[in-house]
Write a structure and sequence with these properties.
Rossmann fold; 9 helices; about 20% strand; alpha/beta; about 220 residues; 8-stranded mixed beta sheet; 10 strands
Length: about 220
């Protein structure tokens, strides 16, 4: 499959590299076609890797992974061009983190709205699926790094798209029972709200190599 990945930071490169390793063709998108981080990634990744602007990547990809910083997510997706995301699955990993007052960050959307919902409202013909936004990128692409089972959430308005994303995540190494489908995109309010806790756990443990697990009573 041809997949666009928006964002050249650690998350974008981790996702893009994993997708290439699974045999997908990946175009890493950024604001400019000459982004040095993207060009360096292509050079080290090989023939199935390419780079270009957000518009180039969106035109190339059958799916789009949004790995941009939350504060710039809507703008970046708009740079794909009018109608460029219509009908496509947009896997949204972004979080509405506000770093303007330093650490730990607050959320600039919460409680009655979410960034996932904002993406879906802005691009109503896209099939937005929120997932992988509650953990470190090393766990996203290598869930078996942890010795125990743990949870990754999915939500989005299109049930078929959620199912397709779930199958792709299983190719990353996620177990079926670890993928918890929460339903429509309003559930992004909950998953994005995990981030303030995640940041504080990271601060206390000095490691991002952890995730959360749901333990339910038997019977």
């Amino acid at each position: 499959m041809k997949i666009a990945v928006f964002g050249t930071g650690d998350v974008g490169q981790a996702i893009a590299t994993k997708l290439v390793s699974l045999g997908h063709e990946v175009r890493l998108g950024s604001r400019t076609a000459t982004n040095e981080k993207a060009k360096a990634w292509v050079e080290k990744t090989g023939a199935k890797a390419s780079t270009g602007t957000y518009a180039d990547a969106a035109k190339f990809g059958e799916w789009v992974f949004n790995c941009t910083l939350g504060a710039g997510t809507i703008e970046a997706l708009k740079m794909a061009g009018e109608g460029a995301l219509d009908g496509k699955i947009v896997v949204d990993l972004s979080n509405p983190l506000d770093f303007t007052k330093g650490m730990p960050p607050s959320l600039f959307l919460s409680n009655t709205d979410s960034l996932g919902e904002a993406v879906q409202r802005t691009f109503p013909k896209a099939k937005v699926v929120k997932t992988l936004n509650t953990m470190w990128n090393g766990i996203m692409v290598n869930p078996r790094l942890l010795p125990d089972t743990h949870v990754n959430y999915l939500c989005g308005n299109d049930a078929g798209a959620r199912g397709q994303v779930k199958e792709l995540l299983k190719s990353f190494g996620w177990k079926d029972e670890e993928l918890l489908d929460l339903g429509d995109i309003t559930n992004a309010r909950g998953t994005e709200s995990i981030l303030p806790l995640w940041v504080r756990v990271y601060g206390a443990t000095k490691s991002g190599a952890f995730n959360f697990k749901i333990v339910a009573a038997k019977g």
